[in-house]
RNA sequence: GGAGAGGUGGCUGAGUGGCCUAAAGCAGCGGUUUGCUAAACCGCCGUCCGGCGUAAGCCGGACCGAGGGUUCGAAUCCCUCCCUCUCCGCCA
């Protein structure tokens, strides 16, 4: 959420912002509703002031004077409830629109229309050269009995999957590996609730209802299933007044993530790439405003450390305005090399790291009190440490061998208790 | 799930219909005093919305878990919901 007075003063700038982000928010209508709403609030305040004055007087009055004043107040009350009736639909329209207004952008964010305009800022590793035709993770996984999509269709429908055998061990090894690095760096491990209230979902910038929602809702409650533990962790400190010296607060969240993926049936949504649920280790930070950029860099550096350890070739991409969504002020993705994708492989998103500045903190009312001065909103940041489904894609595809077996990355061998995954299932 | 007690500013906590403009304390900020530190004393000190003002500010409104209601007037009374604590029941 943007500061309201900023919005009023920078109407044109906010309109440009909405456009740059490829969003559709009627700022003109928002300003109009705001003006109308303020007019009504002023009128109501005026009526209330009259009422309060009279009410103060009444106990000192007697007889006819008193009866007269009471009648006057009753008249004012009638006007007040009429004004409120007029106000309340405006308030809800205002809130709906206001919640849609996106965050500001870092001036350095690349300009572009969609993900094709994202800017590669560095890369690491060299895509492997195979002397055989590499397979994609779907085929590798099914042959080795690691992943079963068909049975998942039977149980839950498309975009679900069973992970089995060594894929399960890989999942836990990856979690253990990432958690080790994060905890060593000062992140506090946290297992978060996988359901969150509507106000928390909205506060984090997710729209829990509506056609384009990414969030599954639970019938007859105001709960939704989290799309990432970012939501629960942000909510963890909602309404808090933090101590300056406690900042930055950094957490390593582990949770299942649930996504409706409404309308996402693209070319690259095959297999594990785009699924309705997956496990994820997430980094989350609450920081002072002047340190969020530095922490953002450190989070991206941690993502790189994790994938360098796994020896997965990747590139770091600076997300352009048109591809950014509404919440992030700046966003970097890691794209890992996926040999099974396209003709000769291509890069696909494996992590995403956002500095949300005070956008979420304002909605969730998370502040801190500086040594000298008034309370301020903190900044929030989130970044993927390991999204299991995506990590499995790059590991299976990069570590495959001619016979369909899969080598285990060195850093996971101890956790796996083995060095190789056999090419075909044996049980 | 049942019974009872609660939810008040950054924190503790008083307040059971108008004198609440929310007491008091703590913490914080400014000052006086002062070898230093500390103490003592004095003053300031909630948030949001609207209006006025170049401005320090001034005026009005709202906010005592959330939302409704009663009343001329609600932190206070009533209803619904959420949460916390104690006890009971059930259960990995």
From TrEMBL:
Pathway: Aminoacyl-tRNA biosynthesis; selenocysteinyl-tRNA(Sec) biosynthesis; L-seryl-tRNA(Sec) from L-serine and tRNA(Sec): step 1/1. GO terms for biological process: selenocysteine biosynthetic process; seryl-tRNA aminoacylation. The record marks 384 as: Important for serine binding. Residues 136-409 form the Aminoacyl-transfer RNA synthetases class-II family profile domain. Keywords: Aminoacyl-tRNA synthetase, ATP-binding, Coiled coil, Cytoplasm, Ligase, Nucleotide-binding, Protein biosynthesis. Residues 33-64 form a coiled coil. GO terms for molecular function: ATP binding; serine-tRNA ligase activity. The keyword Aminoacyl-tRNA synthetase applies. It comes from the Bacteria. It catalyses: tRNA(Ser) + L-serine + ATP = L-seryl-tRNA(Ser) + AMP + diphosphate + H(+); tRNA(Sec) + L-serine + ATP = L-seryl-tRNA(Sec) + AMP + diphosphate + H(+). L-serine binds at residues 228-230, 259, 282, 382, 384. ATP binds at residues 259-261, 275-278, 349-352. Its main location: cytoplasm. Its EC number is 6.1.1.11. It is found in: Cytoplasm. InterPro entries: aa-tRNA-synt_IIb, aa-tRNA-synth_II, aa-tRNA-synth_II/BPL/LPL, Ser-tRNA-ligase_type_1, Ser-tRNA-synth_1_N, SerRS_1_N_sf, SerRS_core, tRNA-bd_arm. It is an enzyme of class 6 (ligase). One of its GO terms (cellular component) is cytoplasm. Consists of two distinct domains, a catalytic core and a N-terminal extension that is involved in tRNA binding. Homodimer. The tRNA molecule binds across the dimer. Belongs to the class-II aminoacyl-tRNA synthetase family. Type-1 seryl-tRNA synthetase subfamily. Catalyzes the attachment of serine to tRNA(Ser). Is also able to aminoacylate tRNA(Sec) with serine, to form the misacylated tRNA L-seryl-tRNA(Sec), which will be further converted into selenocysteinyl-tRNA(Sec). NCBIfam families: serS. This is Serine--tRNA ligase. The lineage of its organism: Bacteria, Candidatus Wirthbacteria. The gene is serS.
